[in-house]
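INFO  loader      accepted 1 record
INFO  loader      residues=214
INFO  predictor   begin
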Amino acid sequence: MENSEKLTNSKEVIAYIAERFPKCFTVEGEAKPLKIGIFQDLAERLTDDPKVSKTQLRTALRQYTSSWRYLHGVKAGANRVDLDGNDCGVLEQEHVDHAKQALEESKAKVRARRKEQAEAKATAGKDGEAKTKKIRPKTAKPKNTQQKTTKLNKKPAETTRALTADEVVVGKNVSVNMGNGNMPATIVEINKDDVRVRLSNGLTMVVKAEHLRS
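INFO  predictor   done
INFO  writer      dumping tokens
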């Protein structure tokens, strides 16, 4: 890298030191266990390098050694390496155990975070569905087009009574029982049980006295 512009983040710093020291650092695959005190070696080698500061190196190195691929590489039988890839001794068991524990804890945190995100997403989905149900317009019920039967106000039946013999006289206004109703009429002639009456429409007819009502 000929460009002397200062690096801005740990990812760029790791890529840079992997390019400068490819036998020690890598940006892909399983990483090699680093020599104890590698930071001091890096700081000395890059003292006059304008691209990185000691603070950036320390932060980037911490990120590099806590990554899953680095912790996977810290295993029994593996050797530590210096900046030039030279072996610096076999890993001690306590360092292997520490790396294994750190890896398991890191993976557990990721699983827990993913579970929380999945639960939050599911809850948000249910809330959204509930809100959709609430704002869903109600379907108007079809109006009953069947016409209601209007009840006819029936007139109360007129109360009538049969005429007595004394009431059957010419000129008396009476009602003639016609079976389905009473017709107003006037007695015009009496012949024993037969009585001639004149209806309101002018017609005359003979009826039995028992069919006359008051």
